[in-house]
Amino acid sequence: MKVYPFKIPKPENNALIYQEDIELVFYDKLHQHDEIQISFIAKGNGTLLVGDNISSYIENDIFIIGSNLPHAFKSDKYSQTTSKMLSLFFTESSFGNNFFGLNEFTELNRFFTESIQGLVIKNNKTEIIERFKKLKKASKLERFILLLEILKHIANSKSETLSRFVYDKTYSDIEGKRMRNVFDYTIENASNTIDLNTIASVANMTKNAFCKYFKKRTNKTYISFLIELRIENACKLLKNNRDLSVNEIAYQTGFNNISNFNRKFKKIKKVTPLLYRKL
Questions:
Q1: What is the pTM (predicted TM-score) of this model?
Q2: Which structural domain, as residue segments, surrounds residue 245?
């Protein structure tokens, strides 16, 4: 089994890195890197973990992942379609320590501040996507110019924060791999019963120590995280499997009580499961 590092190094000699991921399954291991990441989902769908947040991604989504913000793109495991993601990586000091501090870049201040928690772009996506599609054949200078154009459009776009909480310390490799194991196990077994003793053993900790450890790093209890993941899985089934009833979806996603499912769903999504499906 290949061991993946938690902190992913990028080429040191390149100030701006362009990367294409074309796989049945993306690099789905929780990880972090120093660079800010701007990613365009050209094809595919799945689950996105960013900081303390669980959400879904679909074709034409555009995400910004802040420096050293733990994240993972996990393709839906039953998908037979190849996923494709185009990404740019750079740091605030890639082009010189004071480059983005120049007065000419004042309108990007909000971008660098808000990218710390991760962002998803909500409008102006056509202009950004057009520039992403030019990156592959572009020279290094042209890619730099395209980056500035992408940043300009992002700065003028509406966006939503992905992670409500960011752990104030960079994960060590050991810590990161521990959290990765917890997230991987939870995602793979979310529809089954997972008690605290079981998940604590995955983290190689006692139950009490694990609960404190997880809460400190995510600002939520493990049970809250598990429920949010189950609700996100339920959302996918409500949208994509119209033949399944709400009751069937509740039980398939790990809820043993339909009333509890409806209550938790409305608390997180602000609408009932039936209304969510209609919308």
A1: 0.88
A2: 190-278
